[in-house]
Amino acid sequence: MSERVIVLGGGVIGLATAFELRQRGMEVAVLEIKSFGGQASGAAAGMLAPYSEIGEDPDDFFRLCLKSLRLYPEWQAQVKEASEYEFEYTESGSLHCVYHEADLLSLSSRQGWQKEFGVEATILNQTAVKKMEPEISDEVIGAIHYPEESHVYAPDYVKALELACANSGVELYDHLEQVDLEEWESTVRLRSKDGRVFEADQLVISSGAWAKEYEDVFSLSFPIYPIRGQICAYQLVPERINHILYSSQGYLVAKADGTLVNGASEDIAGFETTVTEKGIHRLTNWNHHMLPFLKSLTPFHQWAGLRPATQDGSPLIGRLQQAKRVIFSAGHYRNGILLSAVTAKAVADIAVNQKPLISLDRFTPERFS
Fold it and tell me: Are 74 and 20 in a shared domain?
């Protein structure tokens, strides 16, 4: 009889992990208190851009992101095949743009250390940038081009993961409202608000910012906090943008459906997911300095989601030493889409008692205790 695993949390990390566990032959159930992909996952812009986002620190977190990026071509193909559902995966490349001469030096530094990891990166002057993206502002004086960076359409990717799980035989339970962990030592047993009992041999906690609720249960510190990310989108027609456009102020990414996603404004608002005028203004206040035509346009869509941020910016991934049946996989902040591939495989490795495909020493869930 195969091992049974419950995955608590139906965001992108939980669904990806459930799918991979099922591929390893395990019986899997996903428990979600709300809707699948409804928080950080559904609100994400879907960027797979570790080189642009991580500019100064080639540490274990960068290595984790890099590994996941390079897993993505095969991973997304597997998800599409299992789900029988197409989603956008675009190997667009990116331009990390700068506005001041002093910033060109930082691009050279970034290019230098990233080269050691086999990253293809080319520093472009203003003329070369304009040739690649004619609509870009004359204020941009240069950029670093990363042809490997990509993006997915996050809502469809999460939907595909849900379908891949369902088609593979994963049991999916959503809108449970509340799930209590009653036993985790001799077995795993959880009870939902409606009285249903779920039992398994192992538990994976992938409940994002809600994972902090387990501090008292395990007498450990899990400093994960919700950060509200606000995003807006424009209709792009007739303009055409070919690359992810990144700057110190945020990003712009064109989707295949003809929209341009602009993110992200962040603030601390507890578990509040309403969109604020101030939050969206932070985006519209700078984006025309990247693409001047945006100054005359109004976003047609605005939304927000909660991003689970840890105290040190890195996720909690690993088996609890004092609760051997419990694996943590939470706190991926704004990199959940990117890290879903590597996290799913690493957690599945842990669940079947194999050495993870990449070192997880920095990400141990007990490190704050």
Answer: yes
